[in-house]
Each structure stands twice: as structure tokens, then as C-alpha cells.
């Protein structure tokens, strides 16, 4: 089967999954259920697209298929922000905070941290992207340690508020946040258009890209900023889903078997949408909300990650 037909098949499966998710077991309450499910579907499409797009680009830049943007430490910083609000101002402040303000605060702090990290690392002569990953892992561990310390000190009743933010959920997304997210992602998409032409060459590696005339350092820095904004928006919108990007990006590579990023990115986005819709369907109709979609996705993605490690070790 050609890659074009594979892409069309994925698009058909995605549309079928969306239709089934919207109409499954609706009963007679169409006017109540359908708008709520439509908001979830839009949030799933937006979040899945951001994570899939960011992960494919990140793996191209690092030239490594088992890395994800979470290594920069943004997921850990998100949990630190939620915990710090409850620790400093109390759970009541987090509950009373307007969702738009909370969303913009989380996105703003994560993007600001990423920009400062990039500026600090790349101003040092001779530092590579692997040095950036090392610094990101150190900061991520540091944030997790502070978060765990503060969580031990706060009231157990207030800790339940933080638990809600620890796992991704599409049930608490509102329409205003979706509009803001679409605007941010749309602006990033427009900015990214002029960088697309470098992706196929970047996958050859730093030396080959420079020899072929690509302004490597400048392009990589711009793509890292794009990745940081997309990951920050998706994380602040629904919560952290660590292994989703790893899962869908590698499945896209295995399915398409091409270096062309137009096909890889589109297929990764469609696989991500089907994965999240399937996970949310299981959460609502099989597990009756006793678990979250991030738990299911991280279980499957974590297992796949171990498979990749064992496969790489054997080869």
C-alpha cells in the first residue's frame, strides 16, 4: 500500500472514531450530550496534534526516536506551578482562580522557562542539543523534588486538588480555553511554515545539514521554541501525557517508512487522535471514569518504550 493510501486510511479511521465517539450511547439527550462531547473531541484533536507535531520535530532535531519534549522539564514545571499555588495561597485560591488566568499563567511560566533555558544553553560556545537535554533533565528532577517536598507539607484535603492536575483529563476543558489555545497554536503554525523546508535535511544530522547550506543553529533554536509553546499549551489545557508523543511518533515512522516529514507529521497527528479517542472511549464506557486517559496512554506508551529499548539493545 502506498503512503498516500495509508494516510487516507488513517484519515478515514480518525473520522469514523470521531463519529462513533459523538453518537455512541447518546440515548434521547442529544441536545445535552452532543455539545459536551464535541468540546472533548475538539480538545482531543488539538492536544493530539500539538503533542504529535512537537514530538516528531523533536526527534528529528535530536536524531533519536526514543526522546520526547518532556525531557526539557516542562511537565515537571507544570506540576510545580500547580503545587506552588496551593502551597503558597491555599487550595481555595486555586479553586477560585479563573480558568483563563490559570491557563495563561501556566503557559506563560512554562514558555518563559523554556526560553531562558534555551538562551542559557546556546549562549555557551560549542554546546550541543544533548547538553540542553542534560540541563533539562537536571531541572526536571529539581522541580519534581521541590514539588514532592511541598506536597508533603500541605493539607491532605488540599492535596486532592493537586491530584486532579497530575493526570490529563478532557472532562474539565471549557470552550474559552479552547479558543485561546487555537489562537496560540494557529500563530505558532503560521510561524512554522517557513521552517518546514529544513526538516527533511535536518534528519540527516547536524554535519550534513550544515554542509547542505542549512543555518543549523538558528533553525534548531526556532524549532525548539515552537516545540516548547506547543507542549506548554497542550499540558496546560488537559494535563501531562508523557508517553503519547513517543508512541504516536514511532508508530508513524513504522507505518510510513519515509523521511518526508509532511507524511510523518500528518500520520502521527491522525494516530494521536485515534489513540486519544480510543482511550477516552474506554475511560467513559468501559472503566466508567475510574481511571484517566493519561493512565491508559502512559501504560501503553511505557510498554512500547520498553519494547524499543529491548529492540535497540538486541540490534
TrEMBL record:
Chain ranges passing through the membrane: 6-27, 39-58, 70-91, 103-122, 128-154, 223-251, 263-283, 289-310
Gene Ontology biological process: siderophore-iron import into cell
Main location group: membrane
Coiled-coil stretches noted in the UniProt entry, renumbered to this chain: none
Pfam families: FecCD (PF01032)
Highest taxon listed in the record's lineage: Bacteria
Protein name in the entry: Iron ABC transporter permease
Organism (species): Pontibacillus halophilus JSM 076056 = DSM 19796
